[in-house]
Amino acid sequence: QVQLVESGGGLVQPGGSLRLSCAASGSIRSIYTMNWYRQAPGKQRELVATIDSGGSTNYEGSVKGRFTISRDTAKNTLYLQMNSLKPEDTAVYYCSLVGLGSDSRGRPQQDSWWGQGTQVTVSS
After folding, report:
1. Cα 35 vs. chain centroid, distance in angstroms?
2. Sheet bearing 2-7, strands edge to edge
3. H or E stretch at 39
4. Are 90 and 80 spatial neighbours (Cβ–Cβ below 8 Å)?
5. Distance of CA 115 to the CA centre of its chain
6. Cα(21)–Cα(57) distance, rounded to whole angstroms?
């Protein structure tokens, strides 16, 4: 069983910064990608940033240059540093992990897991 626990959300003024963390635990054989998504009220969930097993990163256009995704491989922890925050960044942020776990018989099985989400509110 794999669990993802996010932290670091909160209320911040426009132009401010927040750092989100996502700690992964459980039986993970290998990690393919780790991702941050967000979902604003009334909108679909969107991919914000991703980092693969080689450390390559990709960002959604509106956050490029403002957000930085990183990870601590030893701690199985994912981060999202968010700078120059805007009101339109307000959303629930979710981390996800795509990797190799185990099925009920202990055999390798690719799967994806999600955290519970953390609220980020950008407002004056």
Report:
1. 5
2. 2-7, 18-26, 77-82, 67-72
3. strand 30-39
4. no
5. 8
6. 16
Kind plus residue range of the DSSP H or E element containing 67: strand 67-72
Block residue for tokens 């990608």: 33
The length of the chain in residues reads 124
Closest CA to 111 of 7, 52, 29: 29
Are the C-beta atoms of 30 and 99 separated by less than 8 Å?
yes
* Residue the block writes with tokens 């967000």: 38
DSSP letter assigned to residue 57 = E
Dig out the tokens for 10 from the structure: 């909160």
User: pLDDT tens across 79-123, in order?
Assistant: 999 999 999 999 999 999 999 998 889 899 999 999 999 999 999
Q: What is the pLDDT of residue 103?
A: 87
Backbone torsions φ then ψ of 51, nearest 5 degrees: -135, 130
What pairing do the DSSP bridges indicate for beta strands 118-122 and 10-12?
parallel
